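task queued by scheduler; priority normal; single chain, no ligands, no partner chains; default sampling; output format set to structure tokens
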Amino acid sequence: MPRNQFVVPQFLDVEAKIIGPITARQFVIMLGTLLLEFVIYRVFLNILFVILLGVPTLAIGIAFAFAKVNGQPFHYMVISVIQTLRRPGKRVWDKTLTDADLRVAMKKDEIAEAPVRAIKKPLERSRLSELSMVVNTGGVYVGDVDQLCYGQNHSRKT
């Protein structure tokens, strides 16, 4: 019978290159950054404003397009930072109980006596061999049910 062979995809985290070494994600981010740069230039028309607003915008766009942190794209790190900042860094205990309430809660109740455990007799050789026979045969061999379940001196109670 012929075996069916399946091709297992590898390198799933590698993005497809569309223009030389640039991926589609990088191309779209840089296109948006350059479009924003053009809007800044057309709105302000002053070289000082273009430099003050355009250079940081270009740096942020390049970081989002090409930078990697621990092998992951930069925007994953930015998302993680935002999620971390949204969660509280400190956990504050809201103490609503008074000292008197705490003292009452800390009082120890009377300890109930532990139930007395029955002490089992050690296995006898004849019983041990019979138990191993039951296990080895997968339960087919039953043997003396009363002796196996309840010991030699006890009878089964129904």
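post-processing summary
- Strands lie at 17-19, 22-23, 68-69, 72-73.
- Confidence is low (pLDDT under 50) at residues 147-158.
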